[in-house]
Write a structure and sequence with these properties.
This protein is an alpha/beta fold. The protein has eleven helices and 13 strands.
Amino acid sequence: MTVAVAILNYNGADFLAKFLPSVLSNSGDAQIWVIDNQSTDNSVEFLKEHFPQVNLVINESNGGFAKGYNDGLKNIQADYYVLLNSDVEVTPNWIQPCIDHMENDKMIAAVQPKVIAHHDKKNFEHAGAAGGFLDKNFYPFCRGRIFEEVEEDKGQYDQDLEVFWASGACMFVRADLYHQFGGFDEDFFAHMEEIDLCWRMKRQNYKVYYSGSSTVYHVGGGTLNYMNPKKTFLNFRNSLFMIVKNYDGILFFKLFKRLVLDGIAATLFLFKFQFKHFYAVFRSHMTLYANWSKFKKKRIELRKKSTDFNAVGLYKKSIILKKFLGGIKHYSDLDQNDFC
């Protein structure tokens, strides 16, 4: 049983200097790899000089987060991959609890640890928190984070749980399944590609888990700040891409509802004078229509391969209505009977 920790790096020499020591000291016999995505800073030279024990793959081009991992992992042989952001500090015994899940149940395809904010280590971090879910309109949220409302970690989510998606900030995944399912969708470029991959695996009855016995600390927004309009565009666009590919129901009604809800979100950006974010939402829908034929083909191909869909982790209500009209701030306030 071999484990490869794969860190995708782009101009992250400072992050590597800060966080690689924790990875090296806390990862036992795991192989440590850095996949460099055509950095223009001194990352490669820095690694060779200061961390010669780290394995290095240099991608031929930078196609974003999704293609960067796909290209790099072709060169890495292991039973399990740990996809780790460069801005993550790991802790002792962070690997074994997640690997144990997959060793004990061959249907568990991916696992994530508890993701805590590095800048405030009593709070969950936005990207993953304590495991990911989708609501009935396929908006993502987490145990410990609903939209921008982040909870304090008081041990309330320490129990292991089957979820819908695992965070790409720190994602344990079976290497054979990663390649079998084609890895990340490179058309996503970055953001939500891990949710899409989890969804595709769950369409063939695989499971995704959260382990509360493993903890990492994530800086978050290290490559693209959370308030950057480009991040808004990628999140809204990729969510739509994901729905067209993976939703088995009637697309017209689902996409029309998303058009209305996304329109409300865009209007709120407008009222806040965040015009670039307003345009990002508008552009996300225009980009979907421009790529409709391509994603319709992907949808048809996925439907041919689907077997038994594992719906665990889907929330049968609207998280938007619960949050903004119902005043729900915490995952623990949601009725667990409303989850698949």
